[in-house]
Amino acid sequence: MEQTFELTVNGERRKVDADADSSLLHVLREVLGLKGSRFGCGQGLCGACFVLLDGRPAPSCDAPLRSVAGRAVTTVEGLADGDVPHPVQRAFLDEQAAQCGYCVSGILVSAAALLAAQPRPDEATVAAALDRHLCRCGAQRRMIRAVLRAGQSMVDGSAANGTSTSQAGRGDAGGTGADPADRGDGVAATAVER
Ligand code: FES
Ligand code: FES
Predict the structure, then answer these.
(1) Ligand 2, atom 2, residue with closest C-alpha
(2) CA torsion angle for 90, 37, 143, 133 (degrees, to 10)?
């Protein structure tokens, strides 16, 4: 049975009429039209659907709507500041870090959360922060390099958009798996929809 829920998505209060057991990912994509978050495993295991819940990376595929009512959700679309990409989005473009891109939106939100807490992580810290994200394309080294570059730009002040993780934006700049080796051994997102 449908109920009305209120949540804050990318800084905007939204009312959603949906079944309490609907996944947050379903609501984001099919009710609110935010298609940046992707469906991969559907079990909280691959990272493709990750969003920020109250600023922390979390899967949206297995989060029922009732569990996120009243909470702040930031999707990949919410990372940028209007037309200005988040530093990590900019860096993924500059490093051409994405391959197929399916895993990327989840990776970007996790990277943004990491850099908001720790703008100058070392490589091992980036890899650990992205450990839950699977990428089958073997772009991991480029992705880690992009996150390090984004952090550097934020520390240097050369990034236009600081550490914000909660604005409006878009969704397809780069991605990462967490393996520091440049292997494509992540099983990653079963490409169900794009
Ligand atoms: S973790 Fe949600 S789709 Fe895989
Ligand atoms: S870039 Fe293809 S799955 Fe990650």
Answers:
(1) 100
(2) 160
- The more confident residue out of 184 and 131 is 131
Query: What's this model's pTM, rounded to 2 decimal places?
Result: 0.83
Phi, psi of 18 (to 5 degrees): -165, 170
45 lines ligand 1 (CB under 6 A): yes
Note the pLDDT tens digit of each residue in 32-90. 999 999 999 999 999 999 999 999 999 999 999 999 999 999 999 999 999 999 999 99
Sheet holding 72-74, edge to edge: 12-19, 2-9, 72-74, 51-53, 56-58
Q: Is the CB of 171 under 6 A from ligand 1?
A: no
Rounded CA gap, 183 and 192, in Å? Answer: 23
